[in-house]
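User: Please look over both lines:
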Amino acid sequence: MINTVRGRLTLWYVAALALALAAFGATFYFLASRALYTRVDNDLRSLIGLSNISLIHDTEEGQSSLSAALATTDELKTLEQSLLIFDASGRLLAENHPEDDFQKLLPSLSSIPEDGVYFYTVVDEDDGARHRLATRKVKIPPTNIPYIILVSQSLEAIDDELELLRRPLLFAGLAALLLAGAGGWLLARRSLAPVVAMAGSARRIGAENLGEQLPVANPRDELGQLAVTFNELLARLHAAFERQRRFMADASHELRTPLSVMSATAGVTLRKRHRKEDEYREAVQMMSEQTQRLSRIVKDMFTLARADAGRYPLDKRPLYLNDLLEEVARAGELLAAEKSVTVEIIGSLEAGFHGDEDLLRRMILNLVDNAIKHTPQGGVVRLSMTEEAPDYLISISDTGPGIPSEAQAHIFERFYRAGAARSQPEDGDGAGAGLGLSIASWIAQAHDGSLELTLSDQTGTTFTVHLPSI
């Protein structure tokens, strides 16, 4: 079995060419042989016609049937064809080549048509030579004397011509197949050379060098398009690996911070043998806060990992987004009270929706909590919802200092924190770890929507959630 594409292509190419050559050769040979045999039949038909005319002439001169037959065969004796003339009962009257034993080849009288020529082929039992024969019944006026004319011609010359034709066709076909096979092999090798080069390059590419690209000989042909597509895949894999590496590095950094604080607190506390109860309580309180922060980071990382794998179950049910927005606003008022920040809801719109209520609540609460954290004392956080077909638009605005312009393109990246003004580690869901906006963006996408930063300047920041209203 041929295991290479090059070999299979060559085999299919040679097989297709062999089939075409065989069909062409067979057709050509059939037409040539038919033309040669037709020529023989026409010659025999002409000889019967000449014999008929000669018999008529001799009979008109008053000769008997035997004399007319003898005169006709003698007149046509120089021809290569054999001529035999019988009477109506099948008795031989005359023949032009007595050495040819064709008398016994006369068919039964009933098989000879009354008004046509009967053709047939016989094979000599002694030497295997083939002969073409034709016979016809004629009546010679004016007495309408019946005769049977039998003519014959050897097919040896025709068979020799066809043999000479078969040999060149066979040898030319074999030579053409050999040349086609060699040419097809070289063409397949040359055509598949880019694939071999791509395979070699692909074998050298691993997790450490995903940034490398496959060679593209011609980006317009199919192999070039394959290489371009594979390079695009490598680019996506490289980007995914880079995100994964960055995610692991950032996660390690974020996890190390609370662990370091806990370790330092425990070390300082244990270094002194006797401490007051308040000191122990303060140390335990600090370790508890860091444990909670660590727990939140791990929980958020687990959520994003399940989301990336497509394994986070969505419990979608009918709900009203306006009720969910009011509920989050009330929770936000409690969070904002400590900073004297006002939480407002602008407008009222009844918005039926089908989604996961817990995830949607978490998304909006993340955005509200983030807005409260970055709004100075006495500021305002506004929640609003409008409908712009085919979406519901949920906007959360604050009156904080805004996000630096150079950071706005990265705010949805995991563990990214934009400057000191918007990255202070506060209490709250995902606070200080840079995961809140990433989770909120994923929740919006999981509901066939999106989250975008629509405004951020010195007057404040606005995030807008787009959710399908249909």
